[in-house]
Amino acid sequence: MSIKAVGASSFRNIFAKQTALPSASNTILNFKHSPQESISSLITRSDKEIGGYSEAHLDYDAAEKCAHFHGNLSIDLPKDNPQVTRSGYAMFRTKDQPSSIVWGDKYWDWTDYSALALRVKGDRRKYIVNIQANTPLVTDLFQHRLFLQNPGSWETVVIPLNDFVMTNWGVIQDGSELNKSEVKSVGIGLLDKQYGPFSLKIDWIKVMSGVDVSEIARNENLTVLNDDAIEETPLYGHDTFTKENH
Fold it and tell me: Mostly located where (predicted)?
């Protein structure tokens, strides 16, 4: 087992909270234990929706019992849509949760959790983790880079929830914190503006308390990220996105 900590302060903060938080984690997606349910709860998007040329697929890898997000990214602009000045994105996210006339919109409540954890195996492309919460604008997204320390190998990446940064149309909104009590969706996107194939496999995605993080650290190849990581790569704007994309 090896532990690679990016940002020691956030690493300490996660574990410091373990006495105050419940030990139970909340599984968002688990492709090994509930593959059909997890796959059916997701949607994929790409710039094809605006006339672009990227290919994005999400399917089940029976050999490794995981989800496989893969395709080919193109940044070529649509030929018949001069209003689009930037293209090149591929993403997947959980579907909107069911709502009702009586109870209104439904959200996840992550108040008792301190981190988002993802068990993944990817390449050297630059992926972004996206969280959408209940905010005044549908184009608001909370984002963080998904740094992979061991491309080509399985690893568990832990990102403190407080380190996600809110963006709107690519502009970072200073001082805006994630509303953990009203989370709408979570997903992963590729917007690194580089031509070519991409491949990311996902075993599971969970929200965790400090107790859970310390538990997986005993058995997992663990990477802990903090908000310093986000500064290395700009978060590309949503100028190619529509309301439906989110």
Answer: mitochondrion
What distance in Å separates the CA atoms of residue 179 and residue 110, rounded to the nearest whole number?
Answer: 9
- Rounded to whole angstroms, the Cα distance separating 25 from 113 reads 8
For residue 134 the two structure tokens come to 């209940």
For residue 176, the model assigns a pLDDT of 83
Indicate if the pLDDT at residue 45 is higher than 90.
Answer: yes
Query: If you search the block for the tokens 């929200």, which residue do you land on?
Result: 207
- Tell me the DSSP string of 22-59: -S--EEEEETTTSHHHHHHTEEEEEGGGGT---EEEEE
CB-based burial, 53-65: b 16+ in 10 Å, e otherwise = bbbbebeeeeeee
AA identity, residue 180: K
Euclidean distance between CA atoms 202 and 118, whole angstroms: 7
pLDDT digits (tens, 9 = 90+) for 9-31: 454 454 444 444 444 589 999 99
DSSP E strands, 113-242: 115-122, 127-133, 140-146, 155-160, 165-168, 171-172, 183-190, 196-208, 222-224
What distance in Å separates the CA atoms of residue 190 and residue 93, rounded to the nearest whole number? 12
